[in-house]
UniProtKB/TrEMBL annotation:
CDD domains: fer2 (cd00207), PA_degradation_oxidoreductase_like (cd06214). Residues 3-105 form the FAD-binding FR-type domain. Keywords: 2Fe-2S, FAD, Flavoprotein, Iron, Iron-sulfur, Metal-binding, Oxidoreductase. It comes from the Bacteria. It comes from Profundibacter amoris. It holds the Pfam family NAD_binding_1. GO terms for molecular function: 2 iron, 2 sulfur cluster binding; flavin adenine dinucleotide binding; metal ion binding; oxidoreductase activity. This is Ferredoxin reductase. Residues 262-353 form the 2Fe-2S ferredoxin-type domain. Its cofactor is FAD. InterPro entries: 2Fe-2S_ferredoxin-like_sf, 2Fe-2S_ferredoxin-type, Beta-grasp_dom_sf, Cbr1-like_FAD-bd_dom, FAD-bd_FR_type, FNR_nucleotide-bd, MRET, OxRdtase_FAD/NAD-bd.
């Protein structure tokens, strides 16, 4: 059963930093159970913008019992993020209920490392964890204080939980008194902060990373090298941040350029449907849509995992993978919106667990 969009009314809009907005949604009582979430999850928003069906995923930034809220930072040439800056109270947006596997569980000593708009899930995680009695340290990177999202909320948390919440700002374009707090967040910097006693890696039973892919890769590797168990490291990357999809492999090029249409069969909600992939089709989802079959997807960016399916016959490659775990790759799972066939027949099971 694949989740559907619901039309929600915007109940609040506020500026967050110089180039972002927080959007609050009114959730009707009859949808309350469907929109219940675990801190760290996200919503997928959809709008018709200049005749184009645009979908984007944004992390939930709500504190427990507060209105459902997401933060949207303006991205240069970003179709949805530009549209979102102009939304106002009373407007409606189509929203898929909460999804995602970047979730707070029962960790008691938590290190959060975020850059830019990667703060949004951390606001929700920090609020919930602190309310449950956990100790939380947040390392938050930005260009300068003007660009800090949810600054007033973070400062309020610091005042409320003075003994259990540590907030450390890292700024790349605004000088701070402590040299260690200047520049970008890197694995090397996190190591130095641990050595200086600013963060306690040994005590942390959960480390959550959200931001640019480069930062996540670098910091994750450094954390592992510093003895943090891989099972304790959780990451979320919603924006590619300049990471281009990799070029087609020789196998994918050979299939795409052979002149032979690839036959694809999908298993979806218990039924089987067939369609063909032509040379000009960007991916499986695009090929299906061209032939009138809508496969499940939310963001089309390889980030939301809604289009996850298992290859049961044939072979394929992914242009990008921002959300599948290593065990899922080993089990044959792929993201349809990033999938390119490397064989002339491909069977994909969307019902696979």
């Amino acid at each position: 059963m694949h989740m559907a969009f619901h039309e929600l009314v915007i109940s609040g809009v506020r500026q967050e930093g110089t180039d972002a907005v927080a959007l609050e949604f009114a959730v009707p009582q009859e949808l309350a159970a469907e929109f219940a979430y675990v801190p760290g999850q996200y919503l997928t928003l959809r709008a018709d913008i200049d005749g184009q069906d645009v979908r984007r995923s944004y992390s939930i930034a709500s504190a427990p019992d507060a209105p459902l809220c997401v933060g949207v930072r303006q991205v240069e040439d970003g179709v949805f993020s530009t549209y979102a800056q102009g939304l106002k109270v009373g407007d409606t947006v189509q929203v898929i209920p909460p999804e995602g596997r970047f979730m707070l569980q029962n960790q008691q000593d938590i290190l959060l490392i975020a850059a830019g708009s990667g703060i949004t899930p951390m606001v929700s995680i920090a609020n919930a964890a602190l309310a449950k009695g956990a100790r939380v340290t947040l390392v938050y990177g930005n260009r300068d204080f003007k660009h800090v999202m949810f600054r007033s909320e973070l400062e309020a948390l610091k005042d409320q939980y003075m003994g259990r919440f540590t907030l450390i700002h890292i700024l790349s374009r605004e000088e701070q008194d402590v040299p260690l707090l200047n520049g970008r967040i890197t694995g090397e910097k996190i190591g130095r902060m641990a050595k200086a006693g600013a963060i306690d890696l040994e005590a942390a039973d959960g480390v959550f990373l959200c931001g640019p892919g480069e930062m996540i890769t670098d910091v994750s590797a450094a954390l592992s090298g510093l003895g943090v168990a891989k099972s304790a490291i959780h990451s979320e990357r919603f924006t590619p941040d300049g990471e281009a999809p990799r070029k087609r492999s020789k196998a994918a090029q050979a299939v795409a350029g052979s002149g032979v249409e690839v036959e694809v069969e999908v298993i979806l909600d218990g039924s089987r449907k067939k369609f063909r992939v032509e040379e000009g089709d960007e991916n499986i989802v695009a090929a299906a849509a061209r032939q009138g079959l809508e496969l499940p997807y939310s963001c089309k960016g390889g980030m939301c995992c809604t289009c996850r399916c298992r290859v049961t016959e044939g072979s394929a490659e992914m242009a990008v993978n921002y959300s599948l775990e290593p065990w899922e790759l080993e089990a044959g799972f792929t993201l349809a919106c990033q999938t390119r066939p490397t064989s002339e027949k491909l069977v994909l099971d969307f019902d696979a667990a």
